[in-house]
Specification:
binds ligand AN7, four-stranded parallel β-sheet, 361 residues, alpha/beta, 43% helix, six-stranded mixed β-sheet
């Protein structure tokens, strides 16, 4: 059976004899070498860390397994979060797995269809707030201070502890840290967690170098870049439609200690990277995840990446946001009768092209 992150990185996490070693198979996600974008951006090596391969389809599972294990260890029977969709899907999945009462708050109209489908399927208590993610998070924060319900947003320190394991895996796979780590930034928990993971591995001598942390917000939801909270954030990448990040200060620390950058990319840049990832790399990512790739493309126009080893974190699966994928097609679907002649006609160029290659072996 595949080890989960609690087991795999047991000695680097706060595991006690009383911590339940739960796992839904999270972590140990693929690090895939780029076939196309690597050349486009002119770096030596480009890899994608495919966090959409986690059990609920996003990186949130690494932190959720830790937070839920600690909640159980501490005797809690209920968990709660506010979410742009992935945290709630993950909380609801682990809540169902562990038999906990799970309450999720989502901003109305702002959650991608796949994430809503997950929330409904795992069957937590879902509250749809007529407001922004930031307002929902504030409500959850206050509620969990008042009642014996465990907050499982990334304000819960166990979440970031669990999420740092992704940085461990990258070093374990590459033999050292990359030169640059590109990552989307919403609530800024993940960039904080990765920096902690890389730093811890360096302190332990398991990595010789540290990466420059390159965080990317969407232009319409870029409070860190602009230096002030945004009351009404807007971007096609609903996962990172966040105006007042909880881990704002820690993200700045990660940026400054690593000599990195926190910048923004436009929705057009995000969508262009989104299409390039699926069409040229075979990687179907959600739009927020494509922000890291849009970031590396933008940055490669500013700084020569020759000789550099780069990792882009692909935080969630493209299946999370099926509507965007279908809105984004620029081809019409061809219909035909169920007849071979009709198919041969439609595929005429293919048929001609293949025939010119000679007979089938
Ligand atoms: C796919 O689920 O905030 O900077 O409530 O779902 O750690 O917030 C999701 C965030 C990037 C940003 N990519 O990470 C939520 C939520 C995807 C995401 C981010 C999110 P953070």
């Amino acid at each position: 059976m595949r080890q989960g992150v609690l087991e795999r990185y047991r000695e680097l996490l706060e595991i006690t004899p009383n911590t339940p070693m739960i796992s839904m198979g999270e972590g140990s996600t693929p690090l895939v070498r780029s076939r196309f974008i690597e050349n486009e951006v002119g770096c030596a090596e480009l890899y994608f860390k495919l966090e959409g391969c986690n059990p609920s389809g996003s990186f949130k599972d690494r932190g959720m397994v830790m937070a839920v294990a600690k909640a159980i260890e501490d005797g809690s029977a209920a968990i709660m979060c506010a979410s742009t969709g992935n945290t709630s899907a993950s909380a609801a999945a682990y809540g169902a797995y562990c038999g906990l009462t799970t309450i999720v708050l989502v901003p109305s109209g702002d959650v991608a269809a796949g994430k809503m489908a997950q929330a409904l399927a795992y069957h937590p208590r879902i509250l749809v707030v007529n407001g922004t993610f930031d307002q929902a998070l504030e409500m959850v924060r206050t509620f969990t201070q008042r009642y014996p319900v465990t907050l499982v947003n990334s304000l819960n320190p166990h979440r970031l502890e669990g999420q740092k394991t992704a940085a461990f895996e990258i070093v374990d796979d590459l033999g050292d840290a990359p030169d640059f780590l590109f990552i989307p930034v919403g609530n800024a928990g993940n960039i904080t967690a990765y920096w902690r993971g890389f730093s811890q591995y360096a302190d332990l001598g398991r990595a010789e170098t540290l990466p420059r942390m390159m965080g990317y917000q969407a232009e319409g939801a870029a409070p860190i870049v602009r230096g002030e909270p945004i009351a009404e954030p807007s971007t096609v990448a609903s996962a990172i439609r966040i105006g007042n990040p909880a881990s704002w200060q820690q993200a700045l620390t990660a940026r400054d200690q690593s000599g990195g950058v926190i910048d923004s990319v436009t929705d057009d840049e995000i969508l262009s990277a989104y299409r390039m990832l699926s069409r040229r790399e075979g990687i179907f990512a959600e739009p927020a995840s494509a922000a890291s790739v849009a970031g590396v493309i933008k940055f490669s126009g500013q700084l020569d990446l020759a000789g550099k080893r780069v990792v882009c974190v692909i935080t969630g699966s493209g299946l999370k946001d099926p509507d965007l994928a279908t809105q984004n097609i620029d081809m019409s679907l061809q219909e035909l009768p169920p007849e071979l002649w009709a198919m041969e006609k439609v595929l005429e160029e293919v048929v001609q092209g293949t025939l010119s290659l000679g007979p089938k072996a």
